[in-house]
Amino acid sequence: MSAQDIIKETGPKMDGVVEDFKRKLSNVRTGRATVGLLDTVSVDYYGTPTPLNQMASVAVPEPQLITVQPWDISQLGAVEKAIIASNLGLNPSNDGKLIRLPVPALNEERRRQLAKQVHEIAEEHRIAIRNVRHGSNDHLKKLLKDKAISEDEERGGLDDVQKLTNSYIAKIDELAKNKEHEIMSV
What we know:
Elements: H1 3-26, E1 42-45, E2 48-51, E3 56-62, E4 65-70, H2 76-85, E5 93-94, E6 99-102, H3 108-145, H4 151-184
Antiparallel strand pairs: 1-2, 3-4, 4-6, 5-6
Helix pairs in contact: 1-3, 1-4, 3-4
């Protein structure tokens, strides 16, 4: 294995971290109703935690409303409890067949909380990228120790891994900044 192989492996790992960050950002409310808001909701379905979108139809008929229609009507109460327990700040109301979730406009305090949450998620993913860098650097140092590569190759490899790290952290910072701007704009 060469230094170039390690660098080629590092890029896709960091890509995976950025993709996970994008998924997590899509679950953060911005004041508009989206079906992605309920992706993290898990319902106790006959003793088994089941993702909401696997046991109900989720729709957005209006910009400020989400509707949830469980395929098994007997699970309406369990779905309602799971939505309340998810701590999304949504108050479900049901008519016996359908759960309506009005998405309230965000107040200033809630916007600040969500911006802080985005910042925390971004920091977790920056740390994950640094962990990938750390693993790659350790691999390069082990190759040098085993005399599989020269010191110059190791130094160049470490520089390349650091450049990759910087570019991926910049991507995360940009995505976080855009999401915070989206949250804070009324």
